[in-house]
Amino acid sequence: MKINFNKSEGLVPVIVQDDRTLQVLMLGYMNEEAFEKTKSEGIVTFFSRSQNRLWTKGEESGNFLTVKNIEIDCDNDTVLIKVIPKNIVCHTGSFSCFGNKYAKGFLYELEEKINQRIDNKIEDSYTYSLFQRGINKVAQKVGEEAVELVIEAKDDDEDLFKNEAADLLYHFLILLKTKNFSLEEIEKILLDRNRKALN
User: Is 34 within the bounds of a domain?
Assistant: First the structure.
């Protein structure tokens, strides 16, 4: 597909998305020169409408956006670029121009359901009954699920392996709740480690 740069005075909107989390990081604009420079160098370059020039994101801060994938929409007039950000993206100091929260997925929905069952003391809930038995029992259950996953990893039954992996994740979330930690706190550690590795 070829981008149609003629629709809006030679510029097209560009959505920038984190390649790992699919979080939308920012919106910018490109002309044809900025698009070609981005493709050839693998670093996102925009056309700055306020300064009327090409502008490579991170040229002053060092927080470059490394291109992983470029897609064009069905009308050939909008670009989606998936990137690995070196650090924070927004000039305000937020990780994303749309706020400082990281992208959420189904694991966060599951965590919320687990928290609700425990906080609301749902008596007929397996989750709450396990939680009531205390940290030792919850930790033991996580250990059991981990061992079962290791055992299935040595066999060739893909369905059993995937189900044991799901069981381990579920019980890990219960353990986090029991310890008064959140999935976001653990994710932040992984994100910080990844950013340090890229520096």
Answer: yes
CB atoms within 10 A of CB 16: 24
DSSP string, the chain: ----TTTTTT-EEEEEEETTT--EEEEEEE-HHHHHHHHHHSB-EEEETTTTEEEETTTTT---EEEEEEEE-TTSS-EEEEEEESS--STTS-SBTTBSPPP--HHHHHHHHHHHHHHTT-TT-HHHHHHHT-HHHHHHHHHHHHHHHHHHHTSS-HHHHHHHHHHHHHHHHHHHHHTT--HHHHHHHHHHHHHHHH-
pTM: 0.58
Q: Could you tell me the residue range of the domain that residue 78 belongs to?
A: 12-85
Reported as a single tens digit per residue, the pLDDT across 33-52 is: 999 999 999 999 999 999 99
81 and 28 within one domain: yes
With contact defined as beta carbons under 8 Å apart, do 94 and 29 qualify?
no
Percent of all residues in the chain with a pLDDT value above 70, rounded to a whole number = 95
